[in-house]
């Protein structure tokens, strides 16, 4: 009997892809992003195109990229955080289709992710839980509370890089954005597309003498509870800690 992983690979093969998708049925396209709430504080981020971030050539960034698990106590600047968010999920254009064209590739331009942030050490921001509103390139302040560091570090199996990071990124998959167009095959796109996001984060960190470490060991159900996710239509798919190099 095949294991769950083997079944996933088998039954998301192209030969099983239905042509009778929700898009073909004429069902409404899901929203391009989550709506920006009107009852929570919004923090406008600096323009990433003019942010005070040094340039680094691509060869150097690729050659120097490693996973970094220990960070200094130097905080990130708001310019640097803005740059990292733009490099990983920034919207360059909204097309007439409509679809978002972003700084990372995505099958069918579905871009099925939302970005949550554990802020620990970013100049000008109180520690706590935030969310990135990509359409407005701004932060949604969910809750100012240093206890989020303890809670989310524990959810990541008490790994020290979360506790000591300047910021830890939590990407949430919104499955229906991809499923609407590709049905079951779309689940493969989710895991493929998030890899592009993570690599952009790693390379962007090299421009600011920061280090990044992707984290696979996290408690899905605990994060679902903390972020009010159902674990089916929305679930955590990738976590990465970032901090200045020692």
Can you describe what's shown?
The protein has one domain (39-140, 147-227): 3-Layer(aba) Sandwich (NADH Oxidase), CATH 3.40.109.10. The protein has 246 residues and is α+β, with helices and mostly antiparallel strands. The strands form 2 sheets. A 7-stranded antiparallel sheet has the order 1-6-5-4-7-9-8, with helices on both faces. A two-stranded antiparallel sheet has the order 2-3. β4 and β5 (128-133) form a beta hairpin. It contains 8 helices and 9 strands. The mean pLDDT is 96.
How is the largest sheet built, in terms of strand order?
1-6-5-4-7-9-8
Which stretches are poorly predicted, pLDDT < 50 over at least 5 residues? none
Distance between the termini: 48 Å
Total strands: the figure is: 9
Categorize the overall geometry. globular
The run of helices and strands is: HEHHEEEEEHHEHHEHE
Averaged pLDDT: 96
Q: What is the rounded Rg?
A: 18 Å
CATH homolog superfamily: NADH Oxidase
Structurally, the number of domains stands at 1
Number of helices: 8
């Amino acid at each position: 009997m095949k294991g769950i992983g083997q079944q996933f690979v088998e039954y998301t093969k192209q030969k099983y892809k239905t042509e009778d998708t929700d898009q073909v049925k004429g069902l409404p396209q899901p929203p391009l992003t989550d709506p920006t709430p009107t009852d929570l504080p919004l923090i406008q981020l600096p323009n990433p195109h003019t942010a005070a971030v040094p340039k680094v050539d691509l060869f150097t960034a690729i050659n120097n990229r490693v996973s970094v698990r220990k960070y200094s106590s130097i905080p990130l600047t708001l310019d640097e955080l803005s740059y990292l968010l733009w490099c990983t999920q920034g919207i360059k254009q909204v097309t007439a289709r409509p679809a978002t064209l972003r700084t990372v590739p995505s099958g069918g331009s579905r871009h099925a992710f939302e970005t949550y942030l554990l802020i620990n050490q970013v100049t000008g921001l109180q520690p706590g839980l935030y969310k990135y509103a990509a359409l407005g390139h701004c932060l949604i302040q969910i809750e100012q509370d240093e206890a989020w560091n303890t809670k989310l570090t524990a959810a990541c199996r008490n790994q020290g890089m979360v506790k000591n990071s300047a910021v830890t990124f939590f990407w949430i998959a919104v499955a229906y954005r991809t499923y609407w167009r590709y049905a079951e095959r779309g689940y493969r796109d989710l895991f493929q597309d998030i890899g592009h996001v993570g690599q952009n984060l790693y390379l962007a960190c090299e421009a600011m003498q920061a280090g990044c470490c992707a984290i696979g060991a996290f408690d899905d159900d605990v994060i679902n509870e903390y972020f009010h996710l159902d674990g089916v239509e929305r679930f955590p798919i990738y976590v990465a800690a970032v901090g200045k190099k020692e």
